[in-house]
Amino acid sequence: MSSVTPELPPAQASLRASDDGIALRTESLSLWYGTRRALDAVSLAVPARRITALVGPSGSGKSSLLRCLNRLNDEVDGCRVDGRVWIGDTDAYAADTPVHELRRRVGMVFQRPNPFPLSIGDNVAYGLRLHGVRQRRELDERIEAALRTVALWDEVATRLDDSALDLSLGQQQRLVVARALAVEPEILLLDEPASALDPAATLRFEELLRQLAQRRTLLLVTHNMQQAARVADFTAVLHQGRLVEFDDTDALFTNPRQRLTEDFITGRYG
Amino acid sequence: MDRLHLSQHISRQFNSEIDDVRRRVLAMGGLVEEQIDAALHVLIERDAAAATAIRDRERSINEMELAIDERCTFILARRQPAASDLRLVLAVMKMLADLERIGDEAKRVARMAERLLGDEGSADLTAALAELGEQARGMLRGALDAFARFDGDLALDVMRRDRRLDGLYRDLNETLVARMQAAPERIPAELERLWCARSLERIGDRCKNLCEFVLYLVQGKDVRHSGLAKGE
Ligand SMILES: Nc1ncnc2c1ncn2[C@@H]1O[C@H](COP(=O)(O)OP(=O)(O)OP(=O)(O)O)[C@@H](O)[C@H]1O
Ligand SMILES: [Mg+2]
Question: Residue B118: which domain range?
């Protein structure tokens, strides 16, 4: 394994070296589904212990990019990836990188809450068991800790054996975050995680994201520009598989450098 | 003119809201220009009749200020604008205050000019005041044009003209002080002229503020308190 070069991609010159470091980066990452290119030489550095929003029109490659970062695309037929992905100083696509360990370090939360058809407790325990945690006591402790982190513990403590599918949508979304958190990932990828939530649940969910980012790196795909503006420290804009702009969120939402960004975030037809 | 592509939102309703605000600001600016014209008419042409419409126009200006401000508030609340849309709304809200105060200064000039109607003064003084007034009026016209066309270069040009206005004001100030020292009985009239001159000079300062907001709107740069703002 070689170590990560300290140089930042050109689009990110505004990232200061004094920042907390880079948790993950892609180098000239391209992706094809068959002959169709969905990502085009994306070089993106994601700052550690910050929230970075990933925005862009539908079909611009946001989900494809997320799936590259913990190699979920490996499961997609006809999908080919070129370029590099560094998780810390691990080369994600190196032959000697164990994929299950990569997926422990880089967790994923999807758009629709997708609890497994198991009990609430077993949902959270699922990943832990997969990673070899067997002792009942340790399982119980870590289930409780994860559920507390997402502020779900008080609501479900007495019904851990009930089916997760009986929870409300907002509770389910917090449950799948707890499931992802239980294995203590450094990086959490979130693909439109709040799109099914009502306004109050959305704000509570955003609060949770801020809190999680104190210790973890979050990469958040969202179609809600106000959400990106509210929670993200940095924002990256993807358009037709290319990284158009990356900047701190204040700058990007008041004075974007690229016309494509401006048109996209202000709802203009470019 | 749509350098900022403000008419290219997917929402046509939003396009028309933005355009409406922009046109209202220009209309308000037009009324403020008329206030300056009227004040200069009283001051230079010694035409007392020009003062009569000032009060009505001031009421219209105040009403327009409130209406535009309210529309901006609605846009903020309902559209949550970003980038140039956001900068436009913020710039307009700040420009409103300066425009309204330029109108106030003009009204003040007219009031003092009315008190000067019986005073002879001198051709030189009248010419100096006229030049000061022309400069101030030109700066407002320039600032409004810069806003109408989202023209940052023009805004910069207008900002630089403020130095010339300051120079004219200083010269006139010296002349008036000398006249007061030479003939103390002239003090009341020359003081009125001094205050007129100062109001006109302040109009120039406020026009410079307007241009700073235009620059912010066009370039996204806040140039207040920078070298640019000092005319460098
Ligand atoms: N499994 C797949 N097989 C073939 N093509 C795919 C697959 N997944 C995505 N694509 C294509 O890749 C491109 C990028 O899709 P992707 O889902 O990454 O976009 P996105 O930015 O996440 O869009 P959205 O905002 O709608 O979720 C699209 O053209 C899409 O049709
Ligand atoms: Mg997607």
Answer: 3-230
